[in-house]
Structures are given as structure tokens and as C-alpha cells.
Design a protein that fits this description.
The chain is an alpha+beta fold. It contains 9 helices and 11 strands. The protein is 43% helix and 24% strand. β3, α1 and β4 (75-81) form a beta-alpha-beta unit. It binds (3R)-3-hydroxy-3-methyl-5-(phosphonooxy)pentanoic acid.
């Protein structure tokens, strides 16, 4: 029996970094997905994961399953991806969650969605050491989600399709490194960083309301404010700033980096009729447009 599953990539809409410190964020699942195919073998273990940045996410998932449910080792796993793992769309989380669902089906372990999330988060922490789990939530639940560190709150938001542009900066971000170096800075000035995180929290709470109301102009303003605070955390880059400025100059409502910063993607909320000129302006500053839509469904059988 061959089991096929897939899970969506993600874009962080609001609240990155603050969400590592017991605060909320808003994340959306994107239409580009990671696909996993699993079948039992007569004993040997094979992984063929060409689009996956770090194969340990798959291996660790299998190891934990084996330990927890006393399952066997004979497995053949193949993955494929709709997007490059360079973009920072959460390919590691998506492949982890898609592998969990495939094993869940293969072995009949009947994990609930929350158990899939918890297991995925545990694996992320084991492999990468840091992280809030927001990307695991996006891969598991899909849609647009209000999320607090570690899954303390996972609340689906009723958000319509967003007119969104995603632009890749051409540089792969090293998320664990950026998160760890910010942690050191926070230690040296807790008051300053708590103040910034309080402001980000207010933005996330306001964004939650404006997203539900489809008040895109206001959502854009909140993105700009969020970007300013990310710049004050010194996680943005000149390239990301330039791409955001380019989008704004061509009429975007708002723009910000999405994820850890240091590279990966920026996003912009736009009036749909200006899409072409905004995308062109981002290309003019050497950004690469990635075509995705928000609110993709979470992990599922294919
Ligand atoms: O770099 P990404 O796309 O994995 O996003 C990281 C977001 C952080 O808030 C900085 C870290 C986290 O795990 O929440």
C-alpha cells in the first residue's frame, strides 16, 4: 500500500521573532506544497528527498514513530516539492508534517490534528533546537492562523483570499542563527526588546481584526509598522528593505519581510489592479516574484 500526503508551505504575515517569546503571530498556508509518498518494504529503509534542505526532519520523524509506536524500519519514502527550499516557505516543517500524516495512515495510529502538531513541533525542536512552531501549525492546519508560541493558542481565522505579492531576495536565511543571535541581544537589554515585542503584539492583535474585516489598506499599514520594528531588531537586510520600498513606491498598501529576516522573502499587500506594476518594480530591484496564494488547506492525504 502506497500512502501519499502533502502539506503546504507558509508565509508569516505578522509577528515573527516576537512569537518565539510567548507572543502571538499570524501565519498563512500557501498554495505551494511538499508531497510525500511512503510504502512498506521488506526491511530496508530508503529516503529519496531531493527538495528537502535537511533530511534529518524525515529521519527523525521515522525514528520517533518507531520509538513511540514500535513500528518497523522497512520503509521507502519519496518527497517532492512545488517550491525551492531556498525561499523560506517552511519546507522542513511541511515535510515533517506530511511524513507524520503518511506514517499515521500507514500504521493506523489515529493521531489527531493536535497530536500531529505536537509531534511535529517536538521533531523541529530536536533537529533545529529553536522555533515557535508556527510553521508546523501552518503545515498542519493550513488556512490563516493566529498562533501563540508552542501551540498555546492555535486559532483559525476566517480570512478571505489576500492580494499578496511574495518576492524572494535571492539569499537563503539561516533562521536558527538569527534567532540565537537575537536571543543574546535580548539578554543584554530585556527592557528594550520587551518594549519592541509589546508593540509587535499590538500590531498582531490589530491585524487579526483587520484581516477578518478584509480591510486591506489597514492591514498594509500594520505591515509597514511591523517592518519598522523588525528593522529596529536589526533582522532585515538592505535588499529586503529595498524590495519593500519598491513595492510601496508602486502602490502597495504595505510590505514587510516574512520569516526570520536576513534573506528569504518579503511580502506586500496590494490593490489587485496594481499587481503587474508592483511585481515589475520588485523585479527591477532584483527581487524574484514567487506566485502563491494564501489560505491553502493543511496536511492531507492525496
Ligand atoms: O525563517 P522562517 O520562515 O522559518 O521564520 C522564522 C520565524 C521566527 O519567528 C523568527 C522563528 C519562529 O520559529 O517563530
Amino acid at each position: 500500500m502506497k500512502i501519499k500526503t502533502s502539506a503546504p508551505g507558509k508565509l508569516m504575515l505578522f509577528g515573527e521573532h516576537a512569537v518565539v517569546y510567548d507572543r502571538p503571530c499570524v501565519v498563512t498556508g500557501v498554495s505551494s506544497r511538499i508531497h510525500v509518498e511512503i510504502e512498506k518494504t521488506d526491511g530496508h529503509f530508503m529516503v529519496d528527498a531531493p527538495g528537502v534542505k535537511d533530511i534529518r526532519f524525515v529521519e527523525e520523524t521515522v525514528r520517533i514513530f518507531k520509538e513511540k509506536f514500535k513500528t518497523g524500519n522497512g520503509l521507502s519514502i519519496k518527497t517532492s516539492s512545488d517550491f525551492s527550499c531556498q525561499y523560506g516557505f517552511g519546507s522542513s516543517s511541511a515535510v515533517t508534517v506530511a511524513t507524520i500524516l503518511a506514517l499515521n495512515k500507514l500504521y493506523g495510529t489515529q493521531l489527531s490534528q493536535k497530536q500531529i502538531f505536537d509531534l511535529g513541533y517536538k521533531i523541529t525542536l530536536e533537529v533545529q533546537g529553536v522555533g515557535s512552531g508556527f510553521d508546523i501549525a501552518a503545515a498542519t492546519y493550513g488556512g490563516t492562523t493566529y498562533f501563540v508560541t508552542g501551540g498555546k493558542v492555535i486559532q483559525p481565522l476566517n480570512v478571505k483570499t489576500i492580494s499578496l505579492v511574495a518576492g524572494y531576495s535571492g539569499i537563503k536565511a539561516d533562521t536558527p542563527k538569527i534567532v540565537k543571535s537575537l536571543k543574546l541581544k535580548i539578554k543584554s537589554d530585556k527592557t528594550k526588546y520587551n518594549g519592541i515585542f509589546d508593540q509587535i503584539t499590538k500590531i498582531v492583535e490589530d491585524a487579526k481584526i483587520e484581516l477578518k474585516n478584509s480591510n486591506w489598506r489597514k492591514v498594509g499599514e500594520l505591515m509597514n509598522k511591523n517592518q519598522q520594528l523588525l528593522e529596529s531588531l536589526e533582522v532585515s537586510t538592505e535588499k529586503l528593505d529595498t524590495m519593500c520600498q519598491a513595492a510601496l513606491s508602486a502602490g502597495a498598501y504595505g510590505a514587510k519581510l516574512s520569516g526570520a529576516g536576513g534573506g528569504d522573502c518579503m511580502i506586500a499587500i496590494i490593490p489587485e489592479e496594481k499587481r503587474q506594476s508592483i511585481e515589475q518594480t520588485i523585479k527591477n530591484v532584483a527581487g524574484q516574484i514567487i506566485h502563491v496564494t494564501n489560505n491553502a488547506p493543511g496536511v492531507c492525504l492525496e
